[in-house]
Amino acid sequence: MGRWTYPVVPDMCLLGQDNSRLYSYKSGNKYMGVNLQLSRSCDVHDNTIIGPCTVVGENTVLKNCVIGTNCQIGNNVTITGAYLWDNVVIEDGCTIEKSIICTEAHVLQGVTIGRGCLLSYRVRVGPDIEVPEYSKVTTVRRAREDNMSFSQEEPSSSTETTATIEDLVQQDDACLGEDSLGHMFVDEDDDGVDAGFERWVDARRSTDDLYDGSSSDESGPETPMESDDEDNSEAAQFYREVLDSVQNAMVADIRPENLILEINGSKHAYNMTIDEIPSVLMKSFLMAAMQMPGKGSVMECIKKAITKLKPVLQNYIRPQFQLKVLEEIEIVCLEHDLIQPHFIFVLSTLYNMDLLEEDAIVAWHTGDLPTAEDFESPPDSFNFIRKKAESFINWLENASEESGDDDDDEEEEE
Questions:
Q1: Which of 72, 81, 181, 405 is deepest in the core (most CB within 10 A)?
Q2: Model confidence pLDDT, tens digit, residues 61-84
Q3: What is the pTM of this model?
């Protein structure tokens, strides 16, 4: 759903779907199947999949959930973090949270399903009831519930135990509603909550909190996610993904076109725009070169990376993005003393490889200086790099004038 596996995502149709199971991708990681009937007042949040031929009623809210094919969802329904399989019916006024509803299950009007519930195939619950958290409902009774067999040496104890379990089953079944079809799954050895299923629900809650930018426990202590939203933003995660990809490409024999495919996959996964990639990519190149122990000097690593992966830089550093790339190089050099001495080398290498144009370099040199907000730890001087670049700028201007004079001489000779 988050496009981590791009291009293996629903809208790419790489799994052999027929035309009746095609999906289209919408902004915010929304996937819409064909032949949907969505009411005008329904609210489909980000990170949601709605299967083909599904009907969604008025004032219904779908949030971070997966809806299967041919489902019928009524009016004023709220579904959060749940999985609905195919041919599921949800009537009006229901609330479902972080649960699994299997194929052909039917939730009658006014039902609230607490988190961690599992409704098996063809189960029907309701109306106007609340299914307790972590309930497991099935249409089939387990054999040992109906045919309990214990040692013949203690018949009285066996009878008493059987009656206790049957009473418990009947009592739990009654809470499923007067029109229900199904039985509570009860295991005499069970503590009431399946540990594995609870871990799944907790994982769903963590995913929801990440998308919402909120904590699942508002009253608890501050977590790293709460205290440092910037490190967990999509932009920060995208940078870490690109940095990992570049480092792998520099160490292993990864072809440039494969690296481009990885970067594009990360771009879709984190909803980044094409103009945000060049500066992140350049920062990743410089940081990767700085973090390669035993691979030669920083200068050698930078030259090796740019030379080896030049097609990758050419693919993203287009003329309109070159100024942002230069600004990013400046910020990285000001923040990291290990790269700072090699600024002119980076600049000249990119220029000689036709990755940066003279006009962009001059425009950057005469433009505004970075500000303290651009840095994690602001340097003592913001114009240090600009002063260091003056010799290179002068060389560019002199080379341009000499080239112009040569052109004039050739025109006079002709």
A1: 81
A2: 999 999 999 999 999 999 999 999
A3: 0.46
